[in-house]
Here is the input.
Amino acid sequence: MLTRRTLLQRGLSASAILPALSPLSLGKQPPGMDLRDSGKRCLVVLQLTGGNDGLNTVVPHAQDAYYRMRPNLGLAKGGLHALDEGHGLHPSLTGLGELYQEGQLAVVQGVGYPGADRSHFRSLEVWHTAAPHAPAGDTGWLGRLADALAKDDEQAMPALAVEPGDLPLSMRGRHVMPPTVRDPRGFQLHAGAEQIEALRDELLGASGVGEVDYLRRVARTTYDTA
Here is the structure.
């Protein structure tokens, strides 16, 4: 039985359990990294956590109440990227305005749920879990999607988080642990990783329980993904 201590000790002696990211590789795109040529569909979610002024993102410039309630913050219609006769995008959203004109962007307003909680933290839990009427669990809606995709191909990488911090709750699954990277262009094995391949496979293929099994699964997923 492989213990957590043994796993960490032997892993460190083999250079690292997780793949080393070479700073020289940043800016170079690894082969096969571009999904556009694979013919596969890919869902990209841009999660902008923080405060967003929705009324100055999609501006309801045709409503008198907008300017009446925002005498100093209201944006003039002339500087907006037109969506329709009553709405426009913030002047800085040039790219989104172009996508809308090309028919590649839809704007959905008033998204919410009945009996919305005004707590910022509870609202984040609802967004991450897609479970507005239940206490926040330990899985998120994207994580559950990754679990479902992994059933079809256990060797596939169903999800990847590009995130400066920890894996967000929305991407935590029951069985899949998506890798979290700061820059996907640098997410590849260092050349020296080949020298410890046999020892690494022995470590990551060993059986374990509890935390040891968790560490093994995360490390195996990270190596396979890189």
Observations:
- The helical segments are 4-13, 64-69, 94-101, 120-129, 141-150, 197-205, 211-225.
